[in-house]
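Subject: two folds for Thursday's group meeting

Dear M.,

Sorry for the delay on this. The cluster queue was jammed most of the week, so I only got both jobs back this morning. I'm pasting them in the order they finished. Each block is the input sequence followed by the predicted structure tokens. Could you check whether the formatting survives your parser before we put anything on slides? The first protein is the one we discussed after the seminar.
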Amino acid sequence: MAKIIQHQIFYPNPVTDVWEYLTVSELIAQWLMPTDFKPVVGHEFQFKPGCMDGCDFDGTFYCKVLEVTPYKTLSYSWNFKSLSGKLNTSVVNWTLTEKDNGTELLLVHRGFEGEQMLPIFNLMNPGWAHHMTKLSEALNPETSLTANA
């Protein structure tokens, strides 16, 4: 049975601001990791977190933009190779909804099928939640400083 990562978080920021942090490579680097992302369907880009403990993973996510509907949806493939070179495919979908003078952001990451995918699913599920919190801190640094004081 396939596993799905799903996280939803509310940001007290306009959808335009949240969209920028999902689509501008310099801003993505602030909360996720460095990349050469461009919000253009067909654009190929990578994330290179390095190898992960206990995972059969070569250290690079190979991605391609699948859908861009400005300020509403963003979708890209999120593929990775095992150490033996087998390609594992998955898809990341972001949905932005204007709500209560802010933005509700929904992440759905699909494609974790089979037992061999459990270790990376188990790392990525809380990892995505952590990065979405970092996105909140990047969007609202004054709140983060107050909360950490």
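Second protein, same layout:
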Amino acid sequence: MEAINVYGIALVPVVMAMVELLKRVGIPKKFSPIVAIILGILAGFYYLAPDDPPKAIFLGIVVGLSAIGLFSGAKNTIENLGGNSNSNYHKVKPVRKRPGSH
């Protein structure tokens, strides 16, 4: 089986941008991974392997999942660098003594 070429890898940010555009148009964020995979499969059929359906599906799923991972990684990095992390489980909370305990 052939490896995914440079043009296939270039589809990852394209799929990511299309998903972001669709989110801004109004699709719920929770459907964005499914939309990314569907767009990846469509790109697989149209661009990566138009004559080989199993290969098109496989490479399309790879492109879609890569777009999801790229978005998630970038989002987590930006949140951690900006200090907007929602990870309250790392913070130590002081223990309060109950009244009457010594």
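Two things I noticed about the second structure. The chain has a mean pLDDT of 81. The radius of gyration is 21 Å.

Cheers,
T.
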